[in-house]
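General statements about sequence and structure are easier to judge against a single worked case. For one protein, we set the task of working out the structure tokens from the amino acid sequence alone. This step matters because it turns folding into a mapping between discrete strings. The amino acid sequence and the backbone structure tokens for this protein are reproduced below.
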Amino acid sequence: MTMTDSAADAASCSKKEGITTECGSTLLTPSCRSFEYAEMNLRHSGNAERTTALVKRAVRMGYDSVVINIDIGDLFQSNTEQDESQPPPSKKAKKKCGAGRASEAAPIPDPFLVDENMLQLTALTSAGKRFRQYSRLTVTLADTSFVHQFFHSPQLKKYDLVAIRPDNEQIFTTLTRKTEFFDIITFDQEAGKVHWLHGGGKSKQVQQIADEGVGFEFCYGEALKDSITRRQSEDEDVEVLSNGRSLLSTTKGKKSFFSSGATDIMDIRAPVDAMNLLVLYGVKSGKAKPHLSDFPREVLLRAEAKRTLKGAIAVTSKEEIFV
């Protein structure tokens, strides 16, 4: 795993609440009280200094867990471009053609984590929390003929989390049968209406994926546009909120987490402020915290379980779990 821990606190947590793998990393157990808030989407665009500043800001604002996201968009975009003057290929021909161009896919970069020595973690440890960072890869899938190739890329094993942005309803349907290969479903906040989310009969598929432990992400970045930009794109802003509300309605408020999608330090909001923003999506104040705490933790636990070489059981009392 590429999760980093404070050595002293890791030992304490593993002794009291956690379990350890053969390589010595302490896993995040359901009863581990050192976990409170997670920022699940700090975007890394290649500038290590800028990403480190994002993590510093998140920690200073009260997040004890951060996810550094590398978003590569559509890996196969150049391969899937089609001459509109030509008729679309048959399904068989398309599959054959896709297999033949497998080597042309854009390379998947290595994950990025910040140097923990560059962070000020005193406030976290004083509060009894433990800093954790995770790596994440986000990719847009638009062509079902490339799904198998992508999910079997050796590079994916280097990441803690894999997030998929389905481009269409066909891809989304395919993902219902591939949940063991990814951890998160997300969508483009600026893309307008998300058809796989609003399409008739899709609520059952959304619930099917959620039941497998996959998390659904919606970001508040687009809801924080300044007033001038908001007036210029009023319809788009309505779609941003509409997509989030539809997601919450379809998932019944569960398995969905709220993140920033930040590329700049000004895009990050403290947990309390983010919870207040959830009111715009119809979430009552008393039910906001799980979208930044419990549901992200469930996604991270599932990801850790998938990547652990040996299974293990953490035995704890019912009282400890629900404290």
